Amino acid sequence: MQVTETLSEGLKRELQIVVPATELDSRLSARLEEMKGQVQLKGFRPGKVPVAHLRRIYGKSAMAEIVQNVLNENARKTLEERGERAAMQPSFDLPEDESDAGEVLAGKKDLAYKMTYEVLPKFELGDFKGIKIERPVAEVSDEEVETELKRLARDSAEYAPKDGAAADGDRLTISYLGKLDGEPFEGGADDNAFVTIGSGRFIPGFEEQLAGAKAGEERVLNVTFPEEYGAKQLAGKAATFDVVVKEVSAPAETTIDDEWAKKFGIESLDELKATMRQQLESQLGSATRTKVKRQLLDQLDEKHAFELPPTMVEQEFQNVWNQVTQDLQRSGRSFADEDTTEEAAKADYRKIAERRVRLGLVLSEIGEQNSIQVTDEEVQRALVDRIRQFPGQEKQVYDFYRENPDALASLRAPIFEEKVVDYVLGLAEITDKTVSREDLMKDDEEEAKA
């Protein structure tokens, strides 16, 4: 094999590689010898098919397989010899002339091709050991636990039909038809909907206008969709709903005690409270982790500036951009609705893609230099968690990950990232700051994007 570098520009590399026809023919002969004892052809006893006959029948298909193996082997070997790491899988520019390709497959001509790739940049890690983090911490109060208990009691309440007018907390069974300018709109009808007055689950004004309604009563509700409503065609629009009340039900009185707690498989009210407190603490802990990680990544990003592989950035940008455009399409919104233009949005999201690639490389380098690894057991646990998300399709999901190394790597990557983050946080100077639950759970637009 002869390798000649034809381009070395920044992170881009291009190599001209020539594999002698003699090497290809030697590999083909060895492959045909293997096939000799495997194939069964009419008129020949097993293992007695002449190699020359096999070459006529299977020569080109076997050589095509050999060429693919040679490309992969040479890429791996060449990168090792050059001491380089490719950012993405190298691409190969093979002979396009049909006659040339035919001669290569026939083992009569050298295989000459170009291999192009981008190398991972070499850079010095910044001093991440001096990072300072302000960790926001919120405590779960007894009042919050009591509020959650009452919410659980309300949501799990049993309802029974009642005579008379609907009051706060009552559940109505209704049919409704929504209209814009007197015309029904798509998705604005339901023949058997439940509405609990005071739950706040319908658009503003809907539940309130049903207060005092009785079974069999018809009402026309006048409402205005919120400006930020998901469906663009409805956002900010005034609408009417023709409603027929089918039934009014009142919640049964709930006594929050040990017996009630047993409905949820818990032995006592105190245990239920403890469980709820743990759940609330877990929510707050996740929010704290998110904000701490954001601070850490921001500081790591500030400490590093180096050339990024263009293909990696472009691929990450396309992933982000596809998600953005799909979200806009689903919500029926446009870039104008977001007070921006497509060009400006692309520039913003390209910066996000660059940040992601840069931080990914930094975290990878920190992990490699400090021998941080993800165990097979950790990946297996992640796979089990993923499989549980698809009840009834467990085998298909398992087979998909087993047969797709890239998919399995997608489970490994976030585990690796969190372990590196934990490592760096272990070296950082962290100061706790007590904040309210509202401040901790609040996300600004910039933080949500990151």
TrEMBL record:
<keyword id="KW-0413">Isomerase</keyword>
<keyword id="KW-0697">Rotamase</keyword>
<keyword id="KW-0143">Chaperone</keyword>
<dbReference type="InterPro" id="IPR008881">
    <property type="entry name" value="Trigger_fac_ribosome-bd_bac"/>
</dbReference>
<keyword id="KW-0132">Cell division</keyword>
<dbReference type="Pfam" id="PF05697">
    <property type="entry name" value="Trigger_N"/>
</dbReference>
<dbReference type="Pfam" id="PF05698">
    <property type="entry name" value="Trigger_C"/>
</dbReference>
<dbReference type="InterPro" id="IPR046357">
    <property type="entry name" value="PPIase_dom_sf"/>
</dbReference>
<protein>
    <recommendedName>
        <fullName>Trigger factor</fullName>
        <ecNumber>5.2.1.8</ecNumber>
    </recommendedName>
</protein>
<dbReference type="InterPro" id="IPR037041">
    <property type="entry name" value="Trigger_fac_C_sf"/>
</dbReference>
<feature type="domain" description="PPIase FKBP-type">
    <location>
        <begin position="169"/>
        <end position="254"/>
    </location>
</feature>
<dbReference type="Pfam" id="PF00254">
    <property type="entry name" value="FKBP_C"/>
</dbReference>
<comment type="similarity">
    <text>Belongs to the FKBP-type PPIase family. Tig subfamily.</text>
</comment>
<dbReference type="InterPro" id="IPR008880">
    <property type="entry name" value="Trigger_fac_C"/>
</dbReference>
<dbReference type="InterPro" id="IPR005215">
    <property type="entry name" value="Trig_fac"/>
</dbReference>
<feature type="region of interest" description="Disordered">
    <location>
        <begin position="81"/>
        <end position="100"/>
    </location>
</feature>
<comment type="function">
    <text>Involved in protein export. Acts as a chaperone by maintaining the newly synthesized protein in an open conformation. Functions as a peptidyl-prolyl cis-trans isomerase.</text>
</comment>
<keyword id="KW-0963">Cytoplasm</keyword>
<dbReference type="InterPro" id="IPR001179">
    <property type="entry name" value="PPIase_FKBP_dom"/>
</dbReference>
<dbReference type="InterPro" id="IPR036611">
    <property type="entry name" value="Trigger_fac_ribosome-bd_sf"/>
</dbReference>
<dbReference type="InterPro" id="IPR027304">
    <property type="entry name" value="Trigger_fact/SurA_dom_sf"/>
</dbReference>
<keyword id="KW-0131">Cell cycle</keyword>
